[in-house]
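Provenance and format

Records in this collection were gathered into a single text stream. Each protein contributes a sequence line and a token line. The two records reproduced below are adjacent in the stream.
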Amino acid sequence: MKITGFNPMILTKPEDAEALIKVFEALGFARRHNKVNEMDMAFNEVRMKDENGFYIDVVSGKLGLLERDLNVTRINVDDFDEAAEMLKSKGFRESKIISEFRTETSKYAFYVAPSGLIINLVEHIK
């Protein structure tokens, strides 16, 4: 398994997303693209990048599950299944809220460590 990307992700309420994006724009980040998913797990993801090549994703879920913002570590890999098995062998469990999910362009799931650390594991489908 090879890590192909690594960056912070913030999960926020839809009504708070634009204000949070404006904060990161003030810090020098620019919007790269916006991914909207209207499937079962509806979300809006704004990917941002600064001039140094750092990324941050601001994701707002449409199911109203969040009480407050959550910080997540996004890890892109070239082999989702291998990475998922490695995380599970280290005590991580698949999230009950966002379990394994596929879109046309990616496969992902949220994994939670016993300590509470959340990893969004992603493999882009080529």
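Adjacent record:
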Amino acid sequence: MGIRLRIGPWAAQIFSETALLPDSFTPLSLLESAFFDIFMLSTFMASSIYGFALLNSAQFPNGLGWFSVAYGLFGVVSYAISGGLIPIMVLAVPLVLGMAPLPSPEPQ
């Protein structure tokens, strides 16, 4: 995130002073894009892995686990094909899990 927020303003400052983009702007932009792709794909994969963990848990309904698995796999495939989902889409699984009722505590 720091790279995304710093490369553009840095290059714009140099461009405003010299009317030329720095030579390192293109490689840094490609690196920024690669980091963002890794972030998006790994987050969707994490949602699927978390869904498999929920399927093995007796405390949560299987529907939550299957939703997490399916949504994560859908996100990976969709991002790989189209190259772009909005970044807030990675937060759908935590949102649904946060709204799910908590399991009742086991009596001890």
